[in-house]
Amino acid sequence: MLQVATMKGQVTAEYLLLVAVGISLLGISLAALSTIKGAEGTVYAREKARMVAGDLSSIASEVCALGDGNSRAYSMESAVLECTGNTISVSVGNETASAGVPGCGVECGGEHSGGISISNSHGTVIIG
Questions:
Q1: In 3D, which of 61, 52, 76 has the Cα closest to residue 106?
Q2: What residue numbers bound the domain in which 28 lies?
Q3: What letter does residue 58 receive in the DSSP assignment?
Q4: What is the pLDDT along the chain (128 residues), one digit of tens a residue?
Q5: Which one, 16, 28, 81, 115, has the greatest CB density within 10 A?
């Protein structure tokens, strides 16, 4: 009779151990998922900034090549633009990407969203 009671206690301890291992694996999985989600947001912002910088650079180069008075429209989500010389820097979230516009100076600045105009005014590309 004593041996049967000891076996029941052992089985209960084994089940408790299995439940504890399962809960700890679940906790580790949740922690990993939250880390992955944070990394995904960072990668998205970096790629978005890189894509917008490339698009603006391409359109600005086209407008520059076409000469004075030409303009194009571009639609984008919210981003902060900064221009220095012939370089466009785009910030989305905490991520920044840059692209150059050969042959023309570039003027821009501030936060933009929605439709913006990219125009050539006497050899200077104005984004805004």
A1: 61
A2: 2-127
A3: H
A4: 445 555 666 777 888 888 899 999 998 888 888 877 777 888 888 999 999 999 999 999 999 898 888 899 999 888 899 988 889 999 988 889 999 888 888 998 888 888 899 999 888 899 98
A5: 81
- Which ranges of 67-125 would DSSP assign to H, the alpha helix? none
**Taking the model in full, what pTM does it have?**
0.70
Which two tokens mark 56?
Answer: 């603006």
Both ends of the chain: CA-CA distance in Å?
Answer: 87
Q: How many domains does the chain have?
A: 1
Report d(CA 19, CA 29) in Å as an integer: 15
Provide the pLDDT for residue 9: 65
d(CA 72, CA 6): 83
Residue 1 burial (10 A CB sphere; 0-12, 13-18, 19+): exposed
Going by DSSP bridges, is the β-strand pair 124-127/105-107 parallel, antiparallel, or unpaired? parallel
* Distance in angstroms (rounded) separating the CA atoms of residues 93 and 64: 29
- The C-alpha R_g of the chain, in whole angstroms, comes to 28
Q: How far apart are CA 3 and CA 43, in angstroms?
A: 60
